[in-house]
């Protein structure tokens, strides 16, 4: 059986240094409004020796994506390569996907009066949206479509320590395993993989 | 940096003093991480603050600011006691280690614990780890240098490396991480108050060499000074220029040819990131004229109350010009122009050219670019060349003149070729492949000749001079007090004709040292020594003999021309341990230190500051910003990540003063200044210290001055400059401010 | 006088909602829902919400939407409406203030309930402009309801307190299962109305608060975190679950309320329009009140 290459994110916690290069690169690349972070770097246990680590999180493009399950207007769709995208023209900005998301990925721009939220915005793995590929409108609504151009998503391309990787599951796993083997420790699955990819 | 970032991947141990590469060199830090990953390298971090680098360390020591020397003596004590020092190496290549041994004996782990605050066990553990994993590389940055004893700190670190035989080895060395784009190049070009370009001193000989190289008369240069004696005197430094401005209140005597500073011209220097902000403001206010050339509004213009004669010139960014830049590992890279300068902005050199034209020295200023060396050691105008081509001709002029650090091989053509073939060099060693074989990426200096491939690691004797090998430099004579200062027999760069130490090569000694005879033509052509030899014959002969032009000597652990012959611990001027200031007092006050009397002991002994100001204060950088931060704060995405000035404070200390997380607090300094900042609870600092970044400006002692920005130029984020409260204190040699060891008092706002 | 007090309270309630929108945290990049290793989702609320929303909520709403009217349709066919003559004496029971407050609430509900359903069945409507408009109307029409809910609560509070007679009312379900006109010993409001009062008031306030949380997302209320120990994202999840579950009850009773006033008791709706209640209606369905009014010499 032919298996489609499944696209994955992997952030190597022993390499991530919270430089925020990924999040700034993302914001610049897609010309996001300030306050919308498709990607965010977090540090856990800051200042506690032996326990502090940082990681970069965005939409993980989960298998059985919870956002897709809860959306009342069914605006999500999952590509064959596993990238979870959504239709902003369908989205009503209800926020349900945010409640379901284990990673806090969905972002909501303030839109119009009374603090009403506009259509949800999230990481597209630089794969645009349902509109015509690389059209002006796609770029405006979803940002760059680098995947269609055969380019790496900008966050990973810009990562200063090459902690953040993105690619097909096999290649990502190979790099992960090689790094773990070289270090001789830290064989735990990367952060978020249990939730996003059911550790597969 | 003696080695390179890539070379760190070869280290078995990495010890970092007062540097935070994870934040300040995020891209370079991948080599540290890869060393850990691929080479099982042990990462040791010694820092007052649990930095992002410390978070990746195998072992971390939280040291009291300004006590690195005791810590390193503590390490040496353990090393000597256990016989872990590389005796053979020390005997052959180091002068004066015995004195270090003596001093080290005093620093028992218990004493070190008392002075530095690092538990004796941790010191022993770190020493064990570092001594047993060789080669080890030693990293430092501003955490080591920005002290009144900064020079001693930076001597102490190489001594530790020498004792372990780690100098001049791949995977070893002392690797100082330069903090800004091309700051190595700026230093090499002599943007300093005490040297000419290429580290040529201020002696008459150097001036004469430059006069000749620039094609001007020595007398012409001399005339630019009040009298000849001022040519060889240090100028004001960046740290203390303000002391020379008229009407600045100070009891410190100025020696500035009987006059005061009238005008200040600033090219891209974040003046608001320098210590003593209140005094800087006073200096700016009292100038006759202030000119600031920057892509963004230099916040000095915001800080000053001066209303007239403040000029803001729009300088172009690095993307709007091209030229050679130098990386932290002494390697060159060509930077191509990306876009034409926007609007009315101009690249720095054009601003300077225009200025030179109006001041009437444009011709002399640019003449060097139209000259070349001849085979007979003379200089001539390049035939039929009327105009120079920027920046290629400037690059070639630099290559022609700067011989001290071996920039001879850095022609524009070669550097461009390296940049264009970037992919043909090895990530770790920098060695070229294919058509670039035999050269190292960016031709790290010394790059002795136009065919030399650069020197990847300084002082490495395991490779030949031709391949970038060398011993230590002979710069201080042949012997001291009857002890040989040259390397001992058997210690020499591979393939050398001379299998022992030798002096630096001069016209007078070349025949004797190399055992060759020069022809009469050669003799007539070559200069007095290798540093001023326009013919290049001296260097050429050295290369043929596998000999390093600057000699093969011993590294000095004793520097007899410095106030402390060997590095000695001296407490910061403002020390939280008043008892220790009596035991380890500061230097005597120094008159005419870069033209201004500079205080040491008189400040330190004035009172027990720790009673009123019990909190240690350290400053540093954020990963999102650099320098004074103006260009970063003008980026909306970066400003969103770090929107305001803050102070990292331990919750215990904050509770004691009733300061809540996210609420405002005052920081008072012994200088009588204060700043109002937002408290940010953090466990990265101890309860007796606070940390603040130095990237903010626009507020001064609680007053918002951002109204001074010309319309439309205000950055997205502004805040207090921490340098308003950094304490008085300057290094005894370099006059770098003591911003990494000061005191303060915190208060709820 | 009392009226102004109500208005004042309502303004305060509204102002507090408005204040919550003035948070500066919109710029704080993202609503934190990563609590750290091991701690994250310690309450499993995200998983619970996903489970409920993906599997149950829409179906339950559909059941309520179809089930409740069906039951009443059957009731109407089998039992039929109660008809009282409307020619007798009347009592002026609801003054203009009562009626205005009720009407505002009524109009709000007439928008809130259908728009709520459009959101719940958003995929049926294909998302986009229509559903987005429904969502916005759902938010906007919360405002009039939020204004009147407290005055409404206060003006009928006394009448809505349960008493012993209400137990009996529940035993016979208010006599609505019988075609005969029984005399029901209820006060001004019977137990069914009281139930609706409490669901509409308490449920309504709950809906407003949980709805506001979901609408504003990044409201900053230190107090709520301290009180509940929940992170922002978990608060939002609780709000979403509560809003849906409470929605079932409110919608079910709203439909009941409409059915009762419009169909089950013919013409009952007129009393809230004109303010006059019919003597016959009161005598049978609210006998205790009737007696009291008689004593006072009304009718």
How would you describe this protein?
The complex is a heterotrimer of chains A (200), B (749) and C (299). Chain A is α+β, with helices and mostly antiparallel strands and 200 residues long. Helices cover 26% and strands 14% of the residues of chain A. The longest helix of chain B has 14 residues, at 68-81. Chain B has 27 helices and 27 strands. In chain B, 28% of the residues lie in helices and 15% in strands. Chain B is of the alpha/beta class. With 299 residues, chain C is mainly alpha-helical. In chain C, helix 1 (2-21) packs antiparallel against helix 5 (142-155), helix 2 (45-78) packs parallel to helix 9 (232-264) and helix 11 (279-285) packs across helix 12. Chains A and B meet through helix 1 and helix 6 of A and helix 2 and helix 26 of B.
What's the total number of strands of chain A? 6
Strand content of chain C: under 5%
Strand content of chain A: 5-15%
Envelope shape of chain C: globular
Spatial sequence of strands, sheet with the most strands of chain C:
1-2
What is the SS-derived class of chain A?
alpha+beta
By CATH reckoning, the class of the largest domain in chain C would read Mainly Alpha
């Amino acid at each position: 059986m032919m298996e489609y290459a499944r696209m994955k994110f992997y952030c190597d916690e022993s390499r991530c240094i919270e430089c925020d290069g990924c999040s700034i690169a993302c914001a610049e690349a897609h010309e996001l409004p300030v306050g919308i972070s498709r990607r965010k770097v977090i540090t856990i246990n800051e200042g506690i020796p032996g326990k502090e680590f940082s990681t970069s999180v965005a939409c993980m493009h989960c298998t059985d994506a919870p956002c897709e399950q809860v959306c009342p207007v069914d605006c999500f769709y999952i590509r064959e390569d596993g990238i979870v995208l959504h239709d902003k023209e369908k989205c009503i900005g209800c926020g349900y996907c945010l409640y379901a998301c284990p990673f806090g990925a969905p972002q909501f721009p303030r839109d119009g009066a009374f603090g009403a939220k506009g259509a949800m915005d999230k990481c597209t793995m630089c794969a645009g949206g349902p509109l015509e590929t690389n059209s002006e409108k796609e770029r405006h609504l979803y940002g760059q479509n680098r995947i269609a151009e055969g380019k790496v998503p900008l966050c990973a391309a810009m990562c200063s320590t090459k902690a953040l990787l993105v690619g097909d599951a096999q290649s990502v796993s190979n790099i992960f395993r090689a790094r773990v083997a070289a270090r001789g420790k830290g064989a735990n699955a990367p952060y978020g993989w249990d939730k996003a990819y059911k550790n597969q | 940096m003696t080695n390179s970032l890539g070379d760190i991947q070869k280290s078995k141990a990495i010890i970092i003093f007062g540097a935070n590469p994870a934040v300040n060199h995020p891209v370079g830090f991948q080599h540290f991480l890869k060393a850990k990953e691929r080479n099982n390298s042990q990462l040791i971090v010694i820092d007052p603050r649990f930095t992002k680098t410390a978070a990746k360390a195998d072992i971390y020591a939280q040291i009291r600011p300004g006590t690195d020397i005791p810590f390193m003596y503590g390490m040496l004590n353990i090393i000597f006691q256990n016989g872990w020092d590389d005796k053979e190496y020390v005997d052959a290549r180091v002068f004066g280690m015995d004195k270090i041994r003596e001093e080290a004996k005093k620093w028992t782990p218990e004493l070190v614990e008392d002075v530095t605050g690092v538990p004796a066990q941790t010191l022993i553990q770190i020493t064990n780890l570092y001594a047993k994993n060789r080669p080890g590389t030693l990293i430092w940055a501003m955490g080591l240098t920005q002290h009144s004893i900064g020079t001693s700190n930076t001597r102490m670190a190489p001594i530790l490396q020498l004792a372990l035989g780690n100098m001049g080895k791949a995977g070893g060395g002392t690797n100082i991480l330069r903090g800004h784009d091309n700051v190595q190049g700026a230093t090499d070009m002599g943007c300093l108050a005490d040297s000419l370009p290429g580290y040529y001193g201020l002696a008459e000989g150097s001036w004469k060499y430059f006069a000749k190289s620039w094609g001007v008369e020595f007398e012409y240069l001399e005339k630019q000074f009040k009298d000849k004696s001022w040519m060889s005197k240090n100028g004001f430094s960046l740290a203390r220029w303000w002391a020379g401005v008229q009407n600045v209140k100070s009891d410190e005597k100025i020696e500035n040819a009987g006059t005061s500073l009238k005008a200040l011209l600033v090219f891209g220097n974040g003046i608001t990131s320098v210590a003593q902000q209140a005094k800087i403001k006073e200096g700016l206010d009292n100038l006759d004229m202030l000119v600031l050339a920057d892509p963004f509004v230099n916040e000095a213009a915001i800080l000053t109350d001066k209303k007239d004669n403040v000029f803001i010139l729009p300088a172009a960014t690095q993307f709007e010009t091209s030229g050679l830049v130098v990386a932290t590992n002494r390697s060159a890279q060509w930077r191509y122009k990306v876009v034409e300068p926007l609007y009315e902005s101009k690249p720095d050199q054009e601003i300077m050219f225009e200025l030179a034209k109006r001041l009437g020295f444009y011709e002399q200023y640019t003449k060097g670019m139209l000259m070349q060396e001849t085979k007979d050691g003379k200089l001539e105008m390049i035939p039929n060349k009327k105009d120079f081509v920027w920046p290629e001709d400037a690059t070639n002029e630099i290559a022609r003149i700067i011989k001290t650090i071996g920039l001879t091989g850095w022609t524009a053509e070669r550097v461009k070729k390296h940049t264009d073939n970037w992919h043909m060099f090895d990530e770790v060693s920098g060695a070229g492949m294919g058509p670039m074989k035999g050269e190292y990426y960016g031709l790290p200096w010394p790059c002795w000749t136009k065919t030399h491939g650069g020197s990847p690691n300084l002082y490495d004797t395991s490779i030949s001079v031709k391949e970038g090998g060398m011993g230590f430099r002979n710069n201080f004579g042949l012997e001291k007090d009857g002890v040989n200062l040259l390397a001992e027999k058997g210690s020499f760069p591979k393939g050398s004709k001379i299998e022992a130490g030798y002096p630096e090569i001069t016209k007078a000694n070349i025949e004797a040292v190399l055992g060759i005879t020069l022809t009469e033509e050669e003799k007539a052509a070559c200069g007095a020594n290798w540093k001023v030899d326009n013919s290049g014959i001296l260097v050429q002969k050295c290369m043929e003999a596998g000999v390093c032009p600057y000699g093969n000597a011993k590294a000095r652990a004793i520097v007899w021309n410095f106030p402390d012959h060997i590095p000695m611990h001296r407490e910061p001027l403002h020390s939280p341990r008043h008892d220790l200031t009596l035991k380890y007092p500061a230097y005597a006050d120094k008159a005419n230190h870069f033209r201004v009397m500079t205080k040491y002991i008189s400040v330190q002994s004035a009172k027990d500051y720790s009673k009123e100001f019990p909190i240690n204060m350290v400053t540093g950088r954020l990963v999102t910003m650099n320098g004074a931060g103006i260009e970063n704060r003008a980026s909306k995405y970066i400003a969103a990540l770090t929107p305001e000035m803050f102070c990292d404070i331990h919750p215990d200390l904050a509770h004691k003063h009733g300061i809540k997380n996210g609420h405002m607090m005052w920081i008072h300094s012994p200088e009588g200044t204060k700043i109002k900042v937002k408290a940010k609870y953090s466990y990265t600092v101890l309860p007796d210290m606070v940390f603040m970044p130095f990237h903010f400006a626009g507020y001064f002692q609680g007053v918002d001055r951002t109204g001074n920005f010309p319309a439309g130029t205000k950055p997205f984020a502004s805040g207090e400059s921490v340098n308003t409260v950094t304490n008085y204190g300057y290094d005894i040699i370099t006059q770098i401010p003591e911003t990494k060891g000061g005191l303060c008092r915190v208060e709820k706002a | 006088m009392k009226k102004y007090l109500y208005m004042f309270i309502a303004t305060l309630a509204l102002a507090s909602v408005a204040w919550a929108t003035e948070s500066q945290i919109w710029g704080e990049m993202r609503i934190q829902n990563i609590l750290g290793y091991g701690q994250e989702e310690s309450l499993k609320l995200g998983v619970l919400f996903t489970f409920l929303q993906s599997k149950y909520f829409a179906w339950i709403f559909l059941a309520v939407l179809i089930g409740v009217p069906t039951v009443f349709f059957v009731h109407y066919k089998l039992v039929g409406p109660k008809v009282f003559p409307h020619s007798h004496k009347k009592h002026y029971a609801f003054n203009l203030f009562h009626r205005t407050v009720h009407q505002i609430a009524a109009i709000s509900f007439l928008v809130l309930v259908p728009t709520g359903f459009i959101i719940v069945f958003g995929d049926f409507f294909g998302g986009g402009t229509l559903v987005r408009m429904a969502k916005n109307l759902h938010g906007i029409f919360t405002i009039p309801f939020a204004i009147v809910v407290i005055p409404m609560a206060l003006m009928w509070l006394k009448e809505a307190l349960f008493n012993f007679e209400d137990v009996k009312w529940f035993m016979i379900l208010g006599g609505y299962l019988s075609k005969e006109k029984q005399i029901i010993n209820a006060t001004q409001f019977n137990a069914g109305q009281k139930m609706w009062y409490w669901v509409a008031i308490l449920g309504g306030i709950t809906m407003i608060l949980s709805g506001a949380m979901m609408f504003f997302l990044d409201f900053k209320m230190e107090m709520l975190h301290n009180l509940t120990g929940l992170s922002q994202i978990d608060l939002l999840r609780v709000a979403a679950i509560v809003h849906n579950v409470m929605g079932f009850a409110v919608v079910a009773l709203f439909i009941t309320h409409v059915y009762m006033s419009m169909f089950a008791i013919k013409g009952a709706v007129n009393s809230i329009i004109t303010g006059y209640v019919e003597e016959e209606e009161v005598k049978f369905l609210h006998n205790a009140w009737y007696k009291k009014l008689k004593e006072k010499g009304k009718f």
